[in-house]
Amino acid sequence: MSLLSLEGVSRVYATRRGLFGTPVPVRAVDHISFSVAPGRTLGIVGESGCGKSTTGRVALGIERPSEGTVSFEGAAMPTPGTPEWRRLRARLQLVYQDPLGAMDRRLTVAAQVAEPLEIHGIGDKAERQDRVAALLRDVGLRADLAQRHPHELSGGQRQRAVLARALATDPALLVADEPVSALDVSIQAQVINMLTDLQEARGIAMLFISHDLKVVRQVSHEVAVMYLGRIVEQGDPEAIFADPLHPYSRALVSAIPVPGPRRIERIVLSGDPPNPADRPSGCAFHPRCALATASCRAEVPQLKPAADGRQVACHLVEAA
Amino acid sequence: MSEQVVPVVAAPPRPKVAIPPGVALAMLWLGLMVATALLADVIRPYGITAMDLRARLQPPVGFGGDWAHPLGTDELGRDVFSRLVESIRMSLMIAFGATIIAAVFGTTMGFLAAHFRGWVEQAVLMLIDFQASMPFLILALSVLAFFGNSLPLFICLMGLYGWERHARISRGLAIAANAQGYAAAVRQLGATPMRIYLKHVLPNIASTLIVAATLSFPEVVLLESGLSFLGLGVQPPMTSLGNMVGYGREYLTRAPWILLSPSVVIVLTTLSVSILGDWLRDRLDPTLT
Amino acid sequence: MLRFVALRVGRALLTIALVVTFAFVVLRLSGDPALMIMSPDAPPEALAAFRQAWGLDEPIWLQYLKYFTAILQGELGQSFRDGRPALELVAERIPATLQLTLPALALKVGLGVPAGIYAALHRNSAIDRAVMTFAVTGFTVPSFVLGLVLVLVFAVQLGWLPSGGQESWRSVILPVISMGLGGAGILARFTRSAMLEVLGQPYIRTASAKGVPWGQVVRGHALPNAAIPTVTIVGFMVGTLLAGAVVVESVFSWPGVGRLMVVAVSNRDLAVVQCILLLVSATMVTSNLIVDLLYGVLDPRLRGTAPAGGGH
Hints:
The complex is a heterotrimer. Chain A is an alpha/beta fold. Chain A has helices spanning 52-60, 83-88, 109-119, 125-138, 155-167, 185-202, 213-219, 237-242, 247-254, 294-298; strands spanning 4-16, 23-36, 41-45, 67-72, 75-76, 92-95, 173-177, 205-210, 222-227, 230-235, 304-305, 311-312. By secondary structure, chain C is mainly alpha-helical. Chain C is built from 13 helices and no strands. The chains are: A alpha/beta, B mainly alpha, C mainly alpha. Chains B and C meet through α4, α5, α9 and α11 of B and α1, α6, α7, α11 and α12 of C.
């Protein structure tokens, strides 16, 4: 049984162009479906503006989908702000790109890690203290840092503190939205390793959102490539990495620097970067695709099964 | 699990705050006023209604008076110094009470607007516009005319002064906090709106709100003394600074001291709070106007 | 532009409607409006007629509607002191109030704006500091204290000017100074910061770096741009002219609208109070509207967006 599943989910925003412009609906997320099993990681990768963060927020239940359904542990996601929704927060947690912004700068690390326990009424004061100490140990923060304030920590330490807070209520699902992209490269690997270790030890499922295919490949059991609000390719990370089927995935994979001779020629994307407010007809990728044909301009390709159990949305890829 | 070079950013050593002499004087004066208000019963040599008909219209010390009545007496032989002490207590109490009411009410309205958005926000914004576009003195006078006067009503009425400033600030800052950052994060942890606003947003914006309150405080003092001067604020036998000036006005030619001492206190107090408020604003929140 | 004007006019009308609603609500909350507006010892027939005319036995929303239309038609009730229409009583006091408030406004603008500009152009000079000190004093000394001190010095001690009444042009001097000096201080402070803000802008530095003479930079670029916020505050002052007259007219026993307001409030002469309330809000709203429209002329970028509120 899947822990989290999204069924035909879209998220539409109304944006105004200019001061007196009529509102234009922008589909940030367009008809996507996926599910995450307990203890597994689904990586979502794509450029900024492709709707991956919105997907994460909808999956968490912070935003409601405009169309489609989100269910968690077999039940529909409750409306944000309701008591059930608040109770469910103990099971679903978010790891932020900017840990400093996600923390109250006036409170100590210990106070912030204890906060979800207070909110959900877990344990008494002494138990909470023990639990906070254990959590800080688990994420590798020295005990003396507990009484520090966020601005007195390094970037990596902050991300660990935010992670400790997210883990406090033993969540079943973590949504990690670009959790390491604001960190130094040298610290990224440490945080990633810790994240995967903790996930394994605690059996947490994870939705790992990143623009960095390399990082996604490291942590994910499955990868979904997003382009302009739609999933264009989904499947086993090694398979996608070795043999990307969708032209967009191919471009992403080719952009990863690799030592030694390249297996795939570097593809430089031409054309305008994608703008969700001005979505091309047919396959949204066609203006930047070297292989585009007339049908790509006319018809939106649907996600269909391809080689090695993968799913691809491209007219040019043979169905398996 | 070791992060090799842990740049332990120690809290920057608090730079020694050099308090400008003007600000120091303002603090000193305000301290004196607060002490006077708190200790009024001890300081006051006479009752405020105690009349001494043999010592009517006595001038202050230095103008032919004696130390029995250091600031002189009025037409009924009441001790001006004692009345001044009591007036300071009354005026400060009203100004403090009103400023606190305005801050609490305004901040609540601002949070409501930020939380519910939509028509609640529009309604609050409309009230803010209304309040900001009407001279408060006229509104206050109208309410006093319709409802008559009593001290609690008067304090509440003064408490309506300046709420829109707090509402505007707290709305803006709460919307900013909700849009990104710590408030959104705490919400995601499952906190109730009450907890988010009281435990997280409020402490984070408190310094700005305090600065805003120091801007309102002298204005409330002026408003109260103005209304009391007109005989429409604090009613006898109670007395306030404006009240004393209003009464002293009748004796302007014969006994100007009755009016001058409360006037000096009003001016020095509002001046001190303004100086302190400007200084605090420059230090805490230079964006506020 | 049409849309901009329509929006502004709509907002002005809305504010007036709010004031009328405020008066209606307060009137209903405070007791029987018939007794309040007429007088407690009015003949019963008159009370009955009043109730009928204002529809006091009808549902509240209908009453509100009727109250609204009555006010639109200028029916503002009678003063219960002498039974004359409130509007008439208020109207005949307006010229006296204008005799004080218009010169006071001229004093505020004529003294405050040049002082502010001068202070900004000579920042940190002795004169700048003097202007700023004067400005702070301007809004910490209440007008009634200033007025009484002026009376004490110039009327009682020196005997140069009359202490009250309305005999000659000399009677105007002290009230105008007590009314205008504080506002001049506020305006000076405001103009100074508006000027400093503009002078700090890159285009001013660019113009000056390109060799445009400083005087020309100030006249051509700085002053017009600093005028925008200054106009707002002056507009706000025009709106509060009547309100400012309340205290000063009482100090100098000047027979204007302000004095009438104080007397009406202490007598709880509600028809008169309500009439002045509406008059004040109408001036306030009109001056705000004019400022808003002027904004549109001075700064075309602002058309359609809300300028910063008129408060200070």
